[in-house]
Amino acid sequence: MHLHILGICGTFMGGLALLAREAGHVVSGSDQGIYPPMSDMLAEQAVDLRAGYAPSHLQPPPDQVIVGNALSRGNPAVEYVLDQGLRYTSGPQWLGEHLLHDRWVLAVSGTHGKTTTASLLAWILEYAGLNPGFLVGGVPTNFGRSARLGDGPFFVIEADEYDSAFFDKRSKFIHFRPRTLVIHNIEYDHADIFPDLAAIQRQFHHLVRTVPGNGLIIANGDQANVAETLGQGCWTPTLRLGTGPDCDWRYDLNGQGEMVLRGGDATPLTARPPLPGLHNAANCAAALLAARHVGVPLSTGLDALAGFRGVKRRLELRGEAGGVRVYDDFAHHPTAIRATLEAMRPGPGRLLAVLEPRSNTMRMGIHRERLAAALAPADAVFALQGKGLEWSVADALAGLTPPAEVAQDVPALVQRIRQQARPGDRVVVMSNGAFDGLHGRLLAALDGREVSA
């Protein structure tokens, strides 16, 4: 079957392309936002990539068109599909119907932590010899790709609450039918499609309804939003994971930076998480308990943690120049921004934060009043006042000391960072996009090389 994927370079759709190819389908795809790491991964797998959304990309007609959720009415490819009566579906629906229907699905959901936890879980199952399939919204370094079919019964998936397609406004995760479900946290996000927190909770409760009675839900036991969602009705055994005394399983960090995991009357388990911060201890704990549900002993999972090599764009070290280390992180919500900076706070030298307010929610200004507090752990803050951003980043960050440096374009921002950075500093660049190549531009500038405009 020839499948053509519209929006193929999105993290979900790119992974879907790899799975479809591995399942024996001919895959082509179109996108206008083609950038690494997804574009590199697709090219390595010889997927036929076409720039833009020209109707000619759909000639001769494929057997089915899979439409990404970033596309809407008015897009020339979408209009051509509808006018010509081509067969089409959403990515989540195609995945659920064709590849997940006979698998034990382990789904990782929540506003934050999905990609890292799903990657950790897939690696723990791999370490245990279970050869799982997986699809995550990033590229786990242990696997070098964001998706694979696997030949075992288990499939790990990052379960996103964003909608499925312009014609299917249900959250993606409704199509996945998990038997093991992690609910990390529920916060207000995706303001472009959800009017309020209650609308997001409603989608999460639809997800809860799909988990069978002989499955397991591992839920954040500290967050009222999660408790309220489960309180709407739950028919599945639930483990509450968190830091509070009422949780079934508890995690924290000891003075040596090690994660301590406690459950019931069992002897506390200790391991060094492969990524820093309390939020990553939560990610590790959730992955360990989810793997335990499919038969992987906690001791095996703890051993696996030592071999986990991280995920691209999740506190990924992009390079060092002039004695300055430059990290890349996907954080774009105030909670995630602060958690990332707090995790990086211990260490030598100063911590410099660089932010691109790029997500739809950020562009709408929904969280601008929380930005200054989220960025407060940094010693210096740099931000982009991107085109089309209708609120003032400088005003939002006015309370920071020292004052934030705000630039109108990436070359100017790079020069401001270069002027202030000094040997020993760590720079954390945070964006959910390519940030116009800022990471490479900054490393070149720090190295004394010419920066292209």
From TrEMBL:
Pathway where this protein functions: Cell wall biogenesis; peptidoglycan recycling
GO MF entry, a single one: UDP-N-acetylmuramate-L-alanyl-gamma-D-glutamyl-meso-2,6-diaminoheptanedioate ligase activity
Binding site for ATP: 110-116
Domain Mur ligase N-terminal catalytic: 2-101
GO biological process, one term: peptidoglycan biosynthetic process
Domain Mur ligase central as annotated: residue spans: 108-291
Domain Mur ligase C-terminal: 313-433
InterPro entries referenced in this protein's UniProt entry, alphabetically: Mpl, Mur-like_cat_sf, Mur_ligase_C, Mur_ligase_C_dom_sf, Mur_ligase_cen, Mur_ligase_N, MurCDEF_pg_biosynth
Key words of the record: ATP-binding, Cell cycle, Cell division, Cell shape, Cell wall biogenesis/degradation, Ligase, Magnesium, Nucleotide-binding, Peptidoglycan synthesis
Enzyme class: ligase
Entries under SUPFAM superfamilies matching the protein: MurCD N-terminal domain (SSF51984), MurD-like peptide ligases, catalytic domain (SSF53623), MurD-like peptide ligases, peptide-binding domain (SSF53244)
Catalytic activity entry: UDP-N-acetyl-alpha-D-muramate + L-alanyl-gamma-D-glutamyl-meso-2,6-diaminopimelate + ATP = UDP-N-acetyl-alpha-D-muramoyl-L-alanyl-gamma-D-glutamyl-meso-2,6-diaminopimelate + ADP + phosphate + H(+)
A UniProt-annotated Pfam family: Mur_ligase_M
Needed co-factor(s): Mg(2+)
EC nos: 6.3.2.45
Residue stretches in coiled coil: none
The family this protein is said to belong to: Belongs to the MurCDEF family. Mpl subfamily.
Function: Reutilizes the intact tripeptide L-alanyl-gamma-D-glutamyl-meso-diaminopimelate by linking it to UDP-N-acetylmuramate.
Protein name: UDP-N-acetylmuramate--L-alanyl-gamma-D-glutamyl-meso-2,6-diaminoheptandioate ligase
Organism: Alkalilimnicola ehrlichii (strain ATCC BAA-1101 / DSM 17681 / MLHE-1)
